[in-house]
């Protein structure tokens, strides 16, 4: 006899707040997604407006599935920036300046009237791919999120690793050119300034009628455009050099590539892998597999769901903390 948890046992929410989008997922305790919403938002959305929008979107989804607010047990939330422990404040290298220094868990919890847990978006992407995606069964892995910013989420010895203050994995601020462009973190020549989405689209600002979106650059590459493939390949090579350092230090078994740029597939992965193999210790390079994530642009929101399901601080039935396959 196959059994599953009744939806009335409770719901959990997963939220991703990006530079220009909001993604909200509702899931049951059986790990099945019940409803979700993805919508564009204004760039650099202030924290108070973002919290209000999260509250309204969660309410809309609850109404859509005919659920009462009392059924919502907790919400996980991912943001693009370091999350300082133990107070959950957003660190000063976030790409959302209006959220820096804000105690996000407390702010959004006050809006939703339920417990809220907050983590870095790459950490949540790592958690989701590890629980349900390309990282299943892997004890040591790196999830690489390549989008507006570049971040890495770490699974070490079968557990998420965030570092002492929550800044582990901020690979986007690894210096690759001491005399390069000024980065938003205040340093020069960070990886993000040469391989982040802004750098990629700006490469076309003088050769095309208008600056394209990252999605357009990827579409051009997939359609055979030589310039787009070169720009994406250059980004892959820069990232591969930084990831070689990760392999030497952490010796992971798998690197799962996610974020918007992962849609470029082999045009990103192949040059990344080639440089990694050239720059890492031979044994570390031989140990690691580089793959594209399975969860696509849902990874962070699903990881936020996983954060709540794995929590010991929010009252959930014990069965909900299993590593079940996502439905």
Question: Can you tell me about this structure?
Answer:
- The protein is α/β, with parallel strands linked by helices and about 325 residues long.
- The chain folds into two domains: about 5-125 and about 295-320, 2-Layer Sandwich (Nucleotidyltransferase, domain 5), CATH 3.30.420; about 135-295, ATPase, nucleotide binding domain (Nucleotidyltransferase, domain 5), CATH 3.30.420.
- It has ten helices and twelve strands.
- The strands form three sheets. A five-stranded mixed sheet has the order 3-2-1-4-7, sandwiched between helices. Strands 10-9-8-11-12 form a five-stranded mixed sheet. It has a two-stranded antiparallel ribbon with strand order 5-6.
- It is globular.
- The mean pLDDT is about 90.
Quick recap:
The protein has 327 residues and is an alpha/beta fold.
Question: What tags apply to this protein structure?
Answer:
5-stranded mixed sheet; single chain; 327 residues; 10 helices; alpha/beta; Nucleotidyltransferase, domain 5; 2 domains
Tally of DSSP helical segments: 10
Total beta strands: 12
CATH superfamily caption of the largest domain = ATPase, nucleotide binding domain
CATH class of the largest domain: Alpha Beta
Helix-strand pattern, N to C?
EEEHEEEHEHEEEHHHHEHHEH
Sheet with most strands: strand arrangement:
3-2-1-4-7
Query: From the 3D coordinates, which CATH architecture of the largest domain would you assign?
Result: 2-Layer Sandwich
Count of discrete structural domains: 2
Strand content: 15-25%
- Average pLDDT score: 90
Which segments are poorly predicted (pLDDT under 50) over 5 or more consecutive residues? Answer: none
Structural class: alpha/beta
Helix content: 25-40%
């Amino acid at each position: 006899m196959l059994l599953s948890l009744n939806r009335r046992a409770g719901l959990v929410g997963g939220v991703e707040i990006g530079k220009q989008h909001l993604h909200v997922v509702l899931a049951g305790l059986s790990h099945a997604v019940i409803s979700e919403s993805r919508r564009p938002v204004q760039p650099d959305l202030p924290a108070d407006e973002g919290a209000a929008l999260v509250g309204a979107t969660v309410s809309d989804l609850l109404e859509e599935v005919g659920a009462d607010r009392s059924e919502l047990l907790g919400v996980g939330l991912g943001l693009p920036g370091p999350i300082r422990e133990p107070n959950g404040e957003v660190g000063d290298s976030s790409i959302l300046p209006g959220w820096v220094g804000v105690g996000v868990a407390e702010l959004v919890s006050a809006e939703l009237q339920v417990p809220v847990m907050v983590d870095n978006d790459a950490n949540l992407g790592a958690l989701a791919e590890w629980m349900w995606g390309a990282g299943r069964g892997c004890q040591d892995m790196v999830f690489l999120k390549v989008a507006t910013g570049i971040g890495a989420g770490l699974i070490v010895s079968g557990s998420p690793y965030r570092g002492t203050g929550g800044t582990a994995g901020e690979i986007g601020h690894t210096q690759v050119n001491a005399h390069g462009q000024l980065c938003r973190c205040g340093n020069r020549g960070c990886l993000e300034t040469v391989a982040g989405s802004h750098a990629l689209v700006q490469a076309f600002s003088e050769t095309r009628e208008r600056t394209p979106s990252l999605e357009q650059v990827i579409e051009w590459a997939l359609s055979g455009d030589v310039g787009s493939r070169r720009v994406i390949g250059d980004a892959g090579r820069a990232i591969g050099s930084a990831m070689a350092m990760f392999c030497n230090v952490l010796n992971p078994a798998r690197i799962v590539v996610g974020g918007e740029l992962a849609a470029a597939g082999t045009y990103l992965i192949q040059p990344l892998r080639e440089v990694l193999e050239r720059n890492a210790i031979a044994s570390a390079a031989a140990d690691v597999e580089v793959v594209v994530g399975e969860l696509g642009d849902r990874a962070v929101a699903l990881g936020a769901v996983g954060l709540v399901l794995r929590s010991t601080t929010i009252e959930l039935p014990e069965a909900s903390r299993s590593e079940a396959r996502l439905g």
